[in-house]
Amino acid sequence: MSAPFIFSYALLWIVVILLSIALFILYSHVGKRLLSSHEGHAMQGPELEKRIQPQVLSAVTGSPVTIGGASPRPRLVIYSSAKCEPCRDLLRGLPEAVGHFGDRVDTFLICSGKVAEVRAFAADVPNQVTVCVDEEDEVADSYRILRTPYALSVDREGVLRYKGVPGPDFKTLSHFFEPLVRDAQPGRNTRKMAV
């Protein structure tokens, strides 16, 4: 083989590798933009106005907890990760919201991570919140949750009424509690929304 052929062959592979890297970066950027958009938030999670699939998890106390299915009270399910900074910010606003709505809505914090990490992450969470561990991300996969934090408002019949990315303040968190409180009142219509 001649030197120009070997040189052009090597140059071709360098170009292919550089194009592959550029394509990966482009897809990564587009994916992040899509996930951050309103449409991306609406695509995540179970389908609105449908019953969510029951999931059995372990609370940090070790007791089994079932998410989904019928329940005496509506539930707010917040999915988070022990390594997520926005999730830590959310925990600062959670006590006020749970203090205001906790007598009418059961709140669950499902956290991705090892049990010790989840315990440390949720050390300051109010006692009214049931903290669950999702070590293998089975709930996230089953419910199609791609980023954290992500919240699901589930009524007493196990139907998803509201979903989206919760903010760290009372006003934003109340958007997830209010449909559940409103729906629990007799004669009120449900409201379908995704944030």
Work out the helicity level: 40-55%
End-to-end span in angstroms?
62 Å
Low-confidence segments, given as residue ranges, are 187-195
- Beta strand count: 8
Side-by-side strand order of the widest sheet: 2-1-5-4-3-6-7-8
* Average pLDDT taken over every residue: 83
How would you sum up the global shape?
elongated
* Helix-strand sequence: HHEEEHEHEHEEHE
Percentage beta strand: 15-25%
Q: Please identify the oligomeric state.
A: single chain
Sheet having the most strands: 8 strands, mixed
Structural class: alpha/beta
Give Rg in angstroms. Answer: 22 Å
Number of helices: 6
What does this structure look like?
- With 195 residues, the chain is of the alpha/beta class.
- Helices cover 43% and strands 21% of the residues.
- The chain has an 8-stranded mixed sheet.
- Strand 3, helix 3 and strand 4 form a beta-alpha-beta unit.
- Helix 3 crosses helix 6.
- The C terminus is likely disordered.
What is the element layout, followed by pairings?
Elements: H1 3-36, H2 38-43, E1 55-59, E2 64-67, E3 75-81, H3 85-101, E4 106-112, H4 115-121, E5 129-133, H5 138-142, E6 150-154, E7 160-164, H6 170-184, E8 193-194
Parallel strand pairs: 3-4, 4-5, 7-8
Antiparallel strand pairs: 1-2, 1-5, 3-6, 6-7
Helix pairs in contact: 3-6
Give keywords.
alpha/beta; 8 strands; 43% helix; elongated; disordered C terminus
Give a summary of the structure in a few sentences:
The protein is α/β, with parallel strands linked by helices. The chain is built from 6 helices and 8 strands; from the N terminus they run H-H-E-E-E-H-E-H-E-H-E-E-H-E.
